[in-house]
Amino acid sequence: MVDSEVMASILIRSGFDIISDPEDADIIMINTCAFILPAKEESIDEILRMAEWKKRGKCKRLIVTGCLPQRYGSSLAREMPEVDLFLGTGEIPNIADFINSLENENPADTRAFIGDPSFLMDSAYPRLLGTSGCSAYLKIAEGCSNCCSYCVIPRVRGKFRSRDVNDILIEAEMLAKAGIKEIIITAQDTTSYGIDLKGKPDLSILLKEMTSISGIRWIRLLYTYPAYLAGKILQTVSREEKICSYIDIPLQHIDDDILKAMNRKGESALIRKKIAEIREIIPPVTLRTTFIVGFPGETREKFDTLLNFIKETRFENLGVFTYSREEGTAADVFPSHVPEDEKERRRDILMEEQSIISREINRSRTGEPHEVLIEGRSDLSGFPFVGRIRAQAPDVDGVTYVKANDAEIGDIITCRIISADVYDLFAGETENGEWKICSYGM
Question: What's residue 106's pLDDT?
Fold first, then answer.
């Protein structure tokens, strides 16, 4: 998302018009992911779909950027002649130059430009925001140096590198001036922030500085690595009202043998201790995590260990991936791979268990007052607005449907939870702690 926003802004500066409907575009650009097989398949399907539009419509040029070219650039150029240009993740700042070169009478024969993935954005690159208008992602670092055995990120994004604190704060100020109410801190590993910088400023310092920015109401933290989630970060989250009591801590597994095979830093004992620490320091915390099932060597017993851990820990939000066998990773050559149908079965079991937990947790919120960030109009009868409470991150968690007489995108209104389902909440607006009279029923 952030990379696409940066490229769009660069193109606008260079005289291009960005439009939302591909049918009306002279140039179609697809920014891709290549993290796991479903992401690659989705990217390729979209490329082929746009290639058909190029054949029969107005489009003259089709450009593919991002992780898919970075990982497979030269082979893609051979297999997809309908694509005019493939650009890797390091070519973001040069996007306008590359497109202009296509318009030359004698364009270069080379169609794939895949260099070192070393680009690190800064505040000098404005963004054409593609989010709701009230929330925005803020990328504080790029790349990863953890080298998990299943992961291709170090290959397609490079080693971990942090942005300067002051530069991040400048961008946060710019987002606030653009009307953004919620900043969502993101990186491949947010808790490693600053480890590569002079003086080693850490995430807690950055978060504290960010809370002083006028106009920003919520700050949300994603992608915290459990082994690096220091107590001072948790203390900062606990003390600062603007920082949502929401910790996204991807754990991937709980069995020690699987964690070791994944090359994850920190054993199960550390994970359990860290969760207890989080809940002690931030009592109303919402915990979100992700797990991988079907990793090579995951026996039924090891899977049951993970299932029991989920039952015991009762995460508020949880996602499950089936292990994706990726060429070039250490885990690709591991023995004891799990059949695909068994991976799917295990994912379904975990998600079914989590749905029970999630419904119970959501229903326990009934009657509670919560701030709701309004993101838009709803098509749900009786609830004309939709938004999120602090316990809901965009795209990955549920939403809150709101009864209110009037609201604008970006408003943060106090509501009381009326009812709940597995993932979504339903709320009515309150005024001074009392129910407002609404003209629509449930």
Answer: 52
| Average pLDDT value for the chain | 91
53: confidence class by pLDDT, cuts 50, 70, 90:
confident
CATH code given to domain 369-435: 2.40.50.140
Q: Where in the chain are the domains?
A: 2-113, 135-364, 369-435
**CATH 3.40.50.12160 is held by the domain 2-113:** yes
- What pLDDT was estimated at residue 74? 82
The full 3-state SS of the chain, as one line of letters, equals CHHHHHHHHHHHHCCCCCCCCHHHCCEEEEEECCCCHHHHHHHHHHHHHHHHHHHHCCCCEEEEEEHHHHHHHHHHHHHCCCCCEEECHHHHHHHHHHHHHHCCCCCCCCCEECCCCCCCCCCCCCCCCCCCCCEEEEECEECCCCCCCCCCHHHHHCCCEECCHHHHHHHHHHHHHCCCCEEEEECCCHHHCCCCCCCCCCHHHHHHHHCCCCCCCEEEECCCCHHHCCHHHHHHHHHCCCEEEEEECCCECCCHHHHHHCCCCCCHHHHHHHHHHHHHHCCCCEEEEEEEECCCCCCHHHHHHHHHHHHHHCCCEEEEEECCCCCCCHHHHCCCCCCHHHHHHHHHHHHHHHHHHHHHHHHHCCCCEEEEEEEEEEEECCEEEEEECCCCCCCCCCCEEEECCCCCCCCEEEEEEEEECCCCEEEEEEECCEECCCCCCC
What class has domain 135-364?
alpha beta
The mean pLDDT value for 195-213 works out to 94
